[in-house]
Each structure stands twice: as C-alpha cells, then as structure tokens.
Amino acid sequence: MSNTDFVLALEDLTVSFDGFKAVDALTLYIDKNELRVVIGPNGAGKTTVLDLICGKTKSSSGSIKFKNQELTMLSEHEIVRAGVGRKFQTPSIYENLSVYQNLELSYPVGRSVWGSLTFKRTAAVSEQVNKIAAEVLLTEQLHMEAALLSHGQKQWLEIGMLLMQDPELLMLDEPVAGMSVKERDQTAELLKRICQNRSVLVIEHDMEFVKKIAHKVTVLHQGKILAEGSMEHIQADEKVIEVYLGH
Ligand code: ADP
Ligand code: MG
Which pTM value belongs to this model? Predict the structure, then answer.
C-alpha cells in the first residue's frame, strides 16, 4: 500500500484462533481527528481488533498502518511510544493514590523538558496534569484518593492517564458501561473535545451514546464489516437491523 493521509489503515487484517477467524480480512481506514464507533453483536471481534492494533494479539495476516508505519511487527511498548493509547474495559488506576499522582505517574518518562533540570520538569509535569485534569472533569478531585471517585470518574481518570501521553490515536472499549445517564452525557462531550486533537476509536453498545459522538459507525459481524457509514445510514440498513439493532 502506498502512503496515505489516514491516521490508521487496517488492510486485509486477519487473526485466527485454532482455525476460527475472529477478525476476517478486515479493511478499515480512520481519518485524522475522526471519532469512529465500532458496534456489533457479542463475539463479533470488536475487542480483538483493538487487541491487534495495540499489539496484545499478533495478526495472522494483513497490515496495520499508523501514520504509514507498520505496527504488526512492533511490541506493545513500541506501539504506545508510536502514539497509540488504549483503554481496557476495566479501569487500571492506582486506587490508593490521588488523582494528581495517578496522572503524574503517566507522564512520559523519556520526555525531555528543555534540558533536564528537575524543577523545570516538575513545572512541565504539573502544568500537563492540571490541563488534563480539566479536560477529564476532575479538577475538583485532583487531591482526592482515586478509590473515592465514582465509577464514571474512575473511567475519566483512566482516559486522563492515557491523554498524559498525548496519543494521536486513542482507543476505548465500552467506555460508558456502568455509567449514569449524566456521566454518559458528560463522557460524550469529553470525547468530542478530545477528538479535536487526535483520532478516537470507540467500541460501544449504547446507541443513544453512539448517536451523540460518532462521525462514522462501523458494524462488525463475525469478524467482517457488515455496514459502514453515518448513524442514519446504519440504522436504515436491513442487514444491521437483522443481526444487531433489531433486538
Ligand atoms: P467482541 O468484543 O465483539 O464481543 P471479541 O473480539 O472479544 O468479541 O471476540 C471475538 C471472538 O474471538 C469470540 O468468539 C472470542 O471467544 C474469540 N477470541 C477472542 N480472543 C481470543 C483469544 N485470545 N483466543 C481464542 N479466542 C479468542
Ligand atoms: Mg468486547
């Protein structure tokens, strides 16, 4: 494949587990600043697609290009360093540390801050922590122990921890599961803000939420794309109604 302007280009991507193709010749392109939502029935292969992109699972064949760089040969750490952040379904935060400390710990270790003077680094870290805390609605909770946050706030903290690395592609697996209606609305606004500076790939089941955030929707079924396009297009698609939206 020649170079493209896509941030992410999956082409003919396949992974088989003992002969079963969980992802089957998938081709998918994501633009700069695009917020894409992937939906589909349980077992469709949605989480496996994220596992492949972040290097947790190795593909059987096909290509994953991030800003024209092939990711399939890279380790998970190298993929993070290339600029891909991924949030898992269960949050992995340090419950006994404060929000501030959780964010601080996520500041990229290798980043040089005009030389290596410690006080300059401290100032840069603190500036970034404050900025990200505001972005994920946790300014008032900065010095609170993470254990005391609501379920939704814990999810936002983990998103904040990923944002500390300033990824160009952020991937979220069912980010609003277990959230209150109000937290879902706030998360929708949060993701809309976040994708102004990066591309975002979200897996989600809550169709009200999907409608609020998606630029485009990809419907996955048995490891393949069943339909792709605007929310209106997807909702009117007979095949999508039959295998997913109808029940
Ligand atoms: P979804 O997220 O759409 O619900 P998954 O991607 O989790 O679906 O799973 C797709 C299919 O691949 C399922 O049948 C699942 O059991 C299988 N699968 C996923 N990961 C593995 C693995 N590491 N080993 C074997 N089978 C797997
Ligand atoms: Mg899943």
Answer: 0.93
